[in-house]
Please model this.
Amino acid sequence: MSDEATPATRATEATTAPAPAPSPGTRRPGGRTARTRAAVRDAVLAGLTEHGYPGLTVEYVAEHSGVHKTTLYRRWGDIEGMVADALDLAGEDSWVPPDTGSLDGDLRALAREVVESFNDPAVSASVSAMIAAAFQSERAAIALRAYYTERFARCETIVERAVARGELPDRADSAPGPATDAGGLVRSVSAPLFFRLFITREPVDAALADQSAATALAAARAGVFSAGGAPALGDGS
Amino acid sequence: MSDEATPATRATEATTAPAPAPSPGTRRPGGRTARTRAAVRDAVLAGLTEHGYPGLTVEYVAEHSGVHKTTLYRRWGDIEGMVADALDLAGEDSWVPPDTGSLDGDLRALAREVVESFNDPAVSASVSAMIAAAFQSERAAIALRAYYTERFARCETIVERAVARGELPDRADSAPGPATDAGGLVRSVSAPLFFRLFITREPVDAALADQSAATALAAARAGVFSAGGAPALGDGS
Model:
């Protein structure tokens, strides 16, 4: 084995990032270092999928990545470092949220993208492996949180465009603080889908994606994510 | 060791059921069999919390429950059977959803109950252990799904009461199929909370509980969970 990575067998950034999956063709050009990093990432994901976090060893990563153990220890420190870096790498893509011209369309496209990404067994296995690892590794949990924080920050452009189009109120002048809890809004689109996939273990489909998007949209229109909180609550029934 | 269980050290049904947590004082009276089952459940939860599913052994459960290995094998078959039974046992409580007199109040109380249950470290650890086990054991995943299916079926009474009070439309006469997707509605209250706790690894608090409840309420009022789907979608912007 050498420091040089063996070619990745099949996984690419497009299939290993936690959902929403990035667009195809976003793999960065890279030299030996980038290839080594990707090979280690692929081996980590394969190992997590095959054995789970507690069964993932440096020996496994070395064997499946073609990267020597001494290199792994030097550059990643330990297994936790390799898992965290796999998540960091997943976040280094050029994915952008849907831009359909309306808030309704954007939220629905976002939800459907999540559902469709989980129809890909490779994506499903990788995301599942990372979410599972976060239960057992604090550093994986921190990396997962950072991944989603950054991913949902990208999604906030959907809300910004809706405000600019006048689809959502711009209450910046009339209320203190941010006008809209854009992060809360975009998270509410994905939440019912991930909840069923990983908590209640129920199936998800396009109809559920549409329901999740419609729920977030109705709440946004009712002002739930607007400055000043949730006017829909406490107004009697 | 004998077939008789040692007394459970601290865990009770009230602290080990996945959220929403059952009300205190719901422990059933039980004889030796019930005590043995509870002792095994406590040992399984302790082992899952300490070692994770792959590290959980029959030896550990025997040692921590005081139940002999031969009894464990005879009654539960294997570790998967013990994990699944711990979830089955969690579902055998007398928990009922909040009944505040309004849909608004019920949904908010439900959401806050979820958040508060995770402020209890014992509940948080137990729920986390069960959700984590489902990533690695198909039988645990099936048991988890059954647990939540039954739990959310109980929650549907919130929606039924709201329909009876006229807070939600009763469209049974004008549209085929069920008038309201009560299961979708009550799941949408919990989803943003579990999503942050176990997927994005972000904190949850009472304000987020209120936002989750308000989101579900706004969507319900907009007809997202009513028969015929989501009128909010596709009506232009």
